[in-house]
Amino acid sequence: MRSGRRKAAKDVKQEEEVSKEVAEAPAPAPASAPAAAPLPPKEEPPPTAGGGGRERDRGRKRAREAEESAPPVICPIALVAGHPSAGAGFNDGHPTAAQFRGPMGIALAPSGHLLVCDSDNRRLRRLVPLVTQTGPPAPPAAPGDENRAGLRGGGDDGVAVVPGAFAKVGTLAGSSRPGTRDGLGRDAEFLDPCGVVVTPAGDAFVIDAAAHTVRRVSAAGEVRTIAGGGKPGFADGAGGAAAFSSPGGIALGPDGTLFIADTGNHRIRAMSQEGAVRTFCGTGTPATETRSGIGCPTLPHPLRYGSSQAR
């Protein structure tokens, strides 16, 4: 009996000591949130074949960033003449009833007329701009601003041309007869009119590729051959002494010089508006490699254009 009481008292004492140790022990630190995993290192794109891959990739990245930050470009397209279901043919009149056959070159005249080389119909077609009454008299446009305003004032009567809108399609020069005859309007003939440009004075210069000539057409429709002898060849000179071989495009320089793509001769020719032709660029040999830039080996002379010079 006595030994049992001593054992019970000993057990109680041990429990009290354990409780005291637990109470005096420091409290454990509160559990913290697990640390975030470190981000993987940024990898450089592998170099591409040919070396300089990283530079090119960085350049592409900058180009993409510039493209993404650029404002959207909206280019509306509207049918101004012809009809999708009309097919090829020839018909003057209202723009939606007009027909063309193989239209090629196109140019806008200062008057607002649109000239079209209707190649397979052998005609130079003219789209007449839509004219509207704007109400009060409009101030005259400043020189060189004729096509920049939404409506171009036509004088004290307040008449204006609506850009991009046309009232009818007509024939300025040419007929169904193939030929090279000069003349007025439908009395003139073309073989393959394919390129056109209009000067500020309103004269049109037309490339007649199959005739190997350049024709001048006045605003009244008077056609005159100003360069080329009617046969393929190559020669600098004036008027009929000059020779082309299937010329194609034509462009007007700021000083009034005409530049002609002499396709068959593999050259660019320069021509005055009076018909004096010279070779501007090209050797006549088809290129076997691409060369670009002013001063390329194909230039036969130092290039002087505007205020810039290259030798």
From TrEMBL:
This is SMP-30/Gluconolactonase/LRE-like region domain-containing protein. Residues 24-36 have a biased composition (Low complexity). It holds the Pfam family NHL. Residues 9-23 have a biased composition (Basic and acidic residues). InterPro entries: 6-blade_b-propeller_TolB-like, NHL_repeat. The keyword Cell cycle does not apply. It comes from the Eukaryota. PANTHER family: NHL REPEAT-CONTAINING PROTEIN 2. Signal peptide: none annotated. Residues 1-70, 289-311 are annotated as: Disordered.
